[in-house]
Known about the structure:
Layout: E1 4-10, H1 29-42, E2 44-45, H2 48-57, E3 65-71, H3 75-88, E4 93-95, H4 98-101, H5 108-118, H6 121-135, H7 144-151, H8 160-172, H9 175-190, H10 194-201, H11 205-213, E5 217-218, H12 233-249, E6 259-261, H13 269-277, E7 282-284, E8 291-292, E9 304-305
Parallel strand pairs: 1-3, 1-9, 2-3, 3-4, 4-5, 6-7
Antiparallel strand pairs: 1-8
Amino acid sequence: MKRELTIVMYHYVRDLDRTRYPKIKGRRTAEFRNQIKFLQKNYNIVTMQEVVCSIRTGEKLKPNAALLTFDDGYIEHYTTVFPILFDLGLQGSFFPPVATAARGQLLDVNRVHFLLSVANAEVLASEIDAHVKDNTETHALDSVSQYREKWATANRFDTAETIYVKRMLQHVLPEVLRNSIARELFSKFVGIDEGAFAAELYLNAEQLRVMQSSGMYVGSHGDSHYWLNTISEEMQQKEIEGSLQFLRDVGSPVEDFWVMCYPYGAYDEKVLDTLRRNHCALGLTTEAAVANLDQNDPLLLPRLDTNDLPITFP
């Protein structure tokens, strides 16, 4: 029998209709509860420790094994998800960037999410194009048409314009320029102080200590949430070192094992080499598939999005 593992990926879990940003793409709390019921009925929800043990020893997992993972360290992971899982005796694996949980920094990815929740993607794309034209010589940029040809490509969740906005502000443009543009657009369209916004959006280190000591698993999502395949090997190492020190600080058992969840699902061979040098046990991607522990590289385990599973329960 194959050692198959259904790894489910979550981000936002909140009562969207009762928030200031109902258009954020997330899982409603009632839907999350129903999906957990579905998983409990049809799967055996396992712990990260059981998965690592299976990888290391070859032992079988329970039939129809499933692992619950939560990316980006949002406050509802502490206030909503953690109590639900704790009351059911289930483990979740949580992957917060150090920048949010320890330093209260607003990530570019979240600036973009909330921009897209309040402004039209075409409008935002036009604003980005204007900045590209204004900064072409200063930053040695490509033309707008070149950027659009390469990056304005729809995927299974987003339109071409939405992907264009995300990619340009997440990693395509030079870091200083994209940060400047993202902050300007956030101020213009969202209109909230970034520090106050981040304080509302993310959980903190003390809350992670409570979760970890209560049976949850806390793993690495990097220090600053970079696309790891776009930075130097030296920066990759710093991202890992900063994250591992943070995990130690919140009580995660780094010396026993640690798990990497790639920001944006991005990695390359240099990243994998860096993880191997730092004795990483598992790596979680955003490839949509059921993991096969007998065939998949342990550092390249695929996951299913919450949207790939039912949210109704009879």
